[in-house]
Design brief:
This protein has about 525 residues and is of the alpha/beta class. It has 23 helices and 13 strands. β10, α12 and β11 form a beta-alpha-beta unit. The chain binds adenosine-5'-diphosphate and magnesium ion. Magnesium ion binds next to α3.
């Protein structure tokens, strides 16, 4: 199969050739003709299978005829995160270079003024995160009544982030006669419902079983007896497994920071991304990772979702994901474009239940990888009652002054608050109470790690269910919660520089506490 057979115009084909693609991926081959024919499409294919081009290419051709009216975009693409939205925009620029389509981005971290000016002039393609878009709609800056093509990309991630109600609201603002394309790596029931309610007789294109993992990826689990030995085991794997570059996933934002600092202290080239970091930091880190100046990227699920990071040799799950489906997303970051990849998951006895549900979903067992025999287990890093540096916890508080983050932070505040001034509410929501940041570590050091499961107050009757566990560490009541005696809030002076080991020991306590 070649791109020529799909019905695309010579201009788009030329741009594709210049990108270096020789043949369409299966999802592209199957979806493009339907999109060109004006049909609704439900595309299910795992991460890294080229879903983006399966809608951008035909859209460029379809939109090349016609003109946009002021504030009435002709097509709308919804993405769960700013990074993904920016990537789709890059795709339009690349493939649309022989067309004169106008495009606007409504995402956090991008200046309002410029985008509004573009909207006023009329855009063919509007790429947005759902919350941002609704804010603009409410202020009368965008009218969705002219949208002819709607794309809901990464639908399962939208669900994870609690965006389904926003998407429903957006769908209701767009005329029935639109063409609706929906893409997802997995097909949970909530997405199935979205499809039933908002798509019209969609062509269902399923490239692999919804929850299957790429077969080129070597998977292994590494049994660890105690959580405080994970970092040591991780370093050992990095040193012995022929790691060119890797993404290391943690379940909590706080652990992302702690692990990043630890790797840094041990002399590894590492960067971190999670939703509380401001946009320019994230962009810079990702750029460094793409161009190879950063070798190890420590990440949370939400921040890493669907990012186009080519050629990752290894994935490490510092924690197994609590939702089995996320496992497929995570390991989908390696073994791309025909390359081999490997994914290691560190599993403590407390983690067992998660790995078991992953195995159940995949209908396979993940082989156990023994750490080398010569490997001494890490010494138990017991509580030396030296409190962790205050800043370890503090650094999670958003230095981000960037307006209205679309990621973890914003969704959280939105769902909880009233629809009204939701993005304004964010800052207060995100600021961590001082009490939590300084909660006494000693008291917590031996406590078993709390399970990052959905909290009942969030389980809003099935379909609007929130699963942004990346946020969970911000809300959990820790230690005495808000009621911390004043003497415990006093800052503790620490020696200025500590060794990597010491850093680890105190970081470990931090981790345990989180
Ligand atoms: P998905 O959205 O399914 O996760 P993307 O659209 O982000 O996947 O594409 C994943 C990677 O595959 C990107 O690096 C993209 O440039 C590349 N890619 C897409 N289509 C092709 C193709 N036809 N041939 C080669 N590489 C492709
Ligand atoms: Mg994608």
């Amino acid at each position: 199969m070649t791109f020529d057979e799909l019905g695309l115009t010579p201009e788009v084909l030329k741009a594709v050739v210049e990108t270096g693609y020789t043949e369409p991926t299966p999802i592209q081959a199957q979806a493009i003709p339907h999109v060109l024919a004006g049909k609704d499409v439900l595309g299910i294919a795992q991460t890294g299978t080229g879903k983006t081009a399966s809608f951008t290419l035909p859209m460029i051709d379809k939109l090349s005829r016609g003109r946009a009216k002021a504030r009435m975009p002709r097509s709308l693409i919804l993405e769960p995160t700013r990074e993904l939205a920016a990537q789709v925009a890059e795709n339009f620029e690349k493939y649309g270079k022989y067309h004169k389509l106008s495009m606007a981005l409504l995402i956090g971290g991008v200046s309002f003024g410029d985008q509004e000016k573009k909207l006023d002039r009329g855009v063919d393609v509007l790429i947005a995160t759902p919350g941002r878009l609704l804010d603009h709609c409410q202020r009368g800056k965008v009218l969705l009544t002219g949208v002819q093509i709607l794309v809901v990309d990464e639908a399962d991630r939208m669900l994870d982030m609690g965006f389904i109600p926003d998407i429903e609201e957006i769908c209701r603002k767009i005329p029935f006669t639109r063409q609706t394309l929906l893409f997802s790596a997995t097909m949970p029931p909530e997405i199935q419902r979205l499809t039933e309610n908002f798509q019209h007789a969609p062509e269902r294109i399923e490239v692999a079983r919804a929850s299957s993992a790429n077969e080129r990826i070597k998977q292994a689990q590494v049994k660890i007896s105690r959580r405080d030995q994970k970092r040591d085991a991780l370093r050992h794997l990095i040193d012995t497994e022929n790691v060119k570059n890797a993404i290391i996933f943690c379940n909590r934002k706080r652990d992302v920071s702690v692990l990043h600092r630890s790797l840094d202290k041990h002399g590894y080239s590492a960067g971190a991304i999670h939703g509380d970091l401001d946009q320019s930091t994230r962009t810079k880190t990702l750029e460094g990772f793409r161009n190879g100046t950063i070798r190890l990227l420590v990440a949370s699920d939400v921040a890493a979702r669907g990012l186009d990071i080519p050629d990752v040799s290894h994935i490490f799950n510092f924690d197994p994901p609590t939702h089995a489906e996320d496992y497929v997303h995570r390991i989908g970051r390696t073994g791309r474009a025909g390359k081999e990849g490997a994914a290691f998951t560190l599993v403590t006895p407390e983690d067992r239940k998660y790995i078991e549900s992953i195995e159940k979903m995949l209908e396979t067992t993940i082989p156990v990888h023994d750490l080398d025999a010569d490997k001494e287990p890490a010494k138990a890093e017991t509580a030396e009652s030296e409190p962790a540096e205050k800043e370890t916890a503090k650094e999670e508080a958003p230095a981000s002054a960037a307006s209205g983050d679309e990621d973890e932070g914003e969704t959280k505040s939105r769902r909880r608050g009233s629809r009204g001034g939701r993005s304004r509410k964010k800052k207060t929501d995100d600021a961590q109470p001082a009490a939590e940041a300084s909660a006494p570590e000693e008291a917590e050091a031996e406590k078993p790690e709390p399970v990052a499961e959905e909290k009942p107050r969030r389980a809003r009757g099935g379909r609007n269910r929130r699963r942004d566990r990346d946020d969970d560490d911000d809300n959990r009541v820790i230690g005495m919660g808000d009621h911390v005696p004043a003497f415990m809030l006093r800052e503790v002076k620490l020696p200025r520089r500590r060794s990597a080991e010491e850093e680890d020991a105190s970081a470990e306590k931090e981790t345990e506490e989180a």
